[in-house]
Amino acid sequence: MVGTEFQLGMKILQFRKPLPAPAPYHFRNDPEGNGMQGFLSEERRGAVLRSLRTDAGTLTRDYLSAAREVLQELVAMPDLIQRLPLERKAGGYSRNLLAGNDAVSVWAIVWSEGSSTSIHDHHCSCCFGVVSGSVTETWYRAIDANRAVQTEEQERKPGYVACMLPSGPNIHRMRNFGPGDAISIHIYGFDHEVHASSIESEYTAVSG
């Protein structure tokens, strides 16, 4: 990892060098993954966040375009992302914060084989890209405040990038059927120090 660099638009990001052994990183005792910001210097985190162009908010066409561009560059370098000592959770998924401010947060999520989210929607914009492995995304349509019916299911493979708005449609579930772990990068339009997650409501699946 010494001297490893990647470019986001016109911004060059460089991981701190040399990286210490995984054990000392305090994010391992941080359930929200806030310590992950230690992998990037303050200057480099700022470059990522400036690239997202959040001045007009995180619901604009300009912001969504910028988020896609950032994700497309990140998912194109799986070797770099996979070398990060990201937190992993057997049978579940773990969120690792890469950068964040009062408008947006960028996370690396590691999905162990067999892991699954709830069926949920979002209170903010949500963009994600798949770095390695594959995740299955299932879409739903709400029939009331607590129940939803499945409408579509797709396997999302490395290189896939998508964005969704809180105005919908945005009810989905993410699962990793394997084999092995999967890694994705998510960019949410929320302040990680104010909100625990991007989830607004959770649903129970019912037959159509």
Q: How are the elements arranged and paired?
A:
Layout: E1 5-8, E2 11-14, H1 42-51, H2 61-75, H3 78-83, E3 93-100, E4 105-111, E5 119-122, E6 126-132, E7 135-142, E8 147-156, E9 161-164, E10 172-175, E11 182-188, E12 199-205
Parallel strand pairs: 8-12
Antiparallel strand pairs: 1-2, 3-4, 4-11, 5-12, 6-9, 6-11, 7-8, 7-10
Question: What report would you give on this structure?
Answer:
34% of the residues are buried. It is built from three helices and twelve strands, in the order ββαααββββββββββ. β1 and β2 form a beta hairpin. The strands form three sheets. The protein has a five-stranded antiparallel β-sheet. A five-stranded mixed β-sheet has the order 5-12-8-7-10, with no helix packed on it. A two-stranded antiparallel sheet has the order 1-2. It is globular. With 208 residues, the chain is α+β, with helices and mostly antiparallel strands. The N terminus is likely disordered.
The percentage of residues in β strands lies in 35-45%
What is the CA-based Rg, rounded? 17 Å
List low-confidence stretches. 1-36
- Share of helical residues: 10-25%
- The number of distinct helices, counting runs of at least 4 residues, comes to 3
For this entry, give a set of tags.
208 residues, alpha+beta, five-stranded mixed beta sheet, 12 strands, Jelly Rolls, disordered N terminus, single chain, 36% strand, globular
Brief summary of the model shown:
The chain has 208 residues and is of the alpha+beta class. The chain is built from three helices and twelve strands; from the N terminus they run ββαααββββββββββ.
